[in-house]
TrEMBL record:
Keyword annotations: Aminopeptidase, Hydrolase, Metal-binding, Protease
Co-factor note (free text): Binds 2 divalent metal cations per subunit. Has a high-affinity and a low affinity metal-binding site. The true nature of the physiological cofactor is under debate. The enzyme is active with cobalt, zinc, manganese or divalent iron ions. Most likely, methionine aminopeptidases function as mononuclear Fe(2+)-metalloproteases under physiological conditions, and the catalytically relevant metal-binding site has been assigned to the histidine-containing high-affinity site.
Domain Peptidase M24: 12-240
GO molecular function terms listed in the Swiss-Prot or TrEMBL record: initiator methionyl aminopeptidase activity; metal ion binding; metalloaminopeptidase activity
CC per GO annotation: cytosol
Cofactor: Co(2+); Zn(2+); Mn(2+); Fe(2+)
Function: Removes the N-terminal methionine from nascent proteins. The N-terminal methionine is often cleaved when the second residue in the primary sequence is small and uncharged (Met-Ala-, Cys, Gly, Pro, Ser, Thr, or Val). Requires deformylation of the N(alpha)-formylated initiator methionine before it can be hydrolyzed.
Protein name as it appears in the record: Methionine aminopeptidase
Residues noted as binding a divalent metal cation 2 in the record, renumbered to the chain: 107, 170, 203, 234
Organism whose genome encodes this protein: Sorangium cellulosum (strain So ce56)
GO terms under biological process: proteolysis
Amino acid sequence: MNVDILRPHACEAMRRAGRAAAATLSAVGARLQPFVTTADIDQWVREDTARRGGRPSQLGYKGFPAAVCTSRNHVVCHGIPRRDEVLLPGDIVNVDVTTELDGYHGDTSATFFIGEPSPEALHVVDVARRCRDAGIAVVRDGARLGDIGAAIEEIARAEGCGVVREVGGHGIGRRMHLPPHVAHTGVRGAGMRLRAGMAITIEPMVNLGSHRIRTLDDGWTMVTEDGSLSAQFEHTVLVTRDGCEILTL
């Protein structure tokens, strides 16, 4: 497996792309409220990304029809924004932004509360955020991919949640998706070793119920098989000698 090791100029370009994606996600998140549509979110992402000199990486990717993924309640990932999908009080929604800037990509997502969250929503969102942070905490030169998955899975299992297995993180750089695949389940000490200069995403999808999912007829939207809530948080990170640098803070 050929994995890109980024040179200093490429690392700096990744920092700029990561900052742009994070700024767009923050700006859009601040506008979320009841009765916004997911199509509104798509329009805001397009406008904000353009203002920062970037391009939405997801737009047209393998035919994806939107500039952002909007995954609401039981939607795990790859939700397609729609004019008729309205955010209601009590919903949760993941907004997944990827920005291409000067030929490099920054990828980040967060799950937001719409109005007052239920105890179940609070729980799954908290667990998903902690899972992401636990995965990031083990990243360093010489660590293995299995260390990331194991750290994530241990927290989710202890909290009674399932971790999605069919999709995961990925390498990132001059393309949005590059090797390696970053599984969010795993065994410590197993898998490929990380090397300083690698850029990867860590983006666990955590379900309140079973880890099982299914894909809708549109070919993109993945939902929990049991209809339970799902939450996700994502950062792009750069592996360093003694840890990692989060590029999408």
